[in-house]
Amino acid sequence: MTQHELPTVLGDLVFVTHRLTRLAAAVTGSTESPAVWRTLGVLRDLGPMRLGELARVSRVTQPTMTKIVNALDERGWIRRIADSSDARAWLISADQRGLAALDAWRAELGRALAPTFADLDDTELDTLADAVEIVRARLERAGDAASTGVVA
């Protein structure tokens, strides 16, 4: 494999992870909107933010994010924190109950998908674990770069 093939591999990775996400939702039988988990994940990874920023990062409209945040608030999974830089504004933060629900969902996904990958040998499992860490490290670096304005 060469660097020339990198864009193709990354495109394939994005598409295969979308397929994996759809499979995970199907095998769990969950009727929960993926937007709920995505929103909690954004808040976990990026910390408290205003509603408009949360909508932008999540790539949804502000009215859609308002509905998601209201649903999360009704469950006690987020907190609204006064924005110290603007008394009229609120920051949205993940609550410990929301983070616990997110962790439980991730565990459920893992259990539901385990049969699909049960026949991996130790080398394949190690390769998969390594790939997850490579992707996680790159995403964290890209997130750090995005918050500082420096391109990774």
UniProtKB/TrEMBL annotation:
SMART domains, per the entry: HTH_MARR
Ranges where the HTH marR-type domain occurs: 3-137
One MF term in the entry's GO annotations: DNA-binding transcription factor activity
SUPFAM superfamilies: Winged helix' DNA-binding domain
Pfam families, A to Z: MarR
Listed InterPro entries: HTH-type_Bedaq_tolerance (IPR052526), HTH_MarR-typ (IPR000835), WH-like_DNA-bd_sf (IPR036388), WH_DNA-bd_sf (IPR036390)
Entry superkingdom: Bacteria
Alphabetized PROSITE patterns for the sequence: HTH_MARR_2
Annotated protein name in UniProt: MarR family transcriptional regulator
Natural source organism: Agromyces badenianii
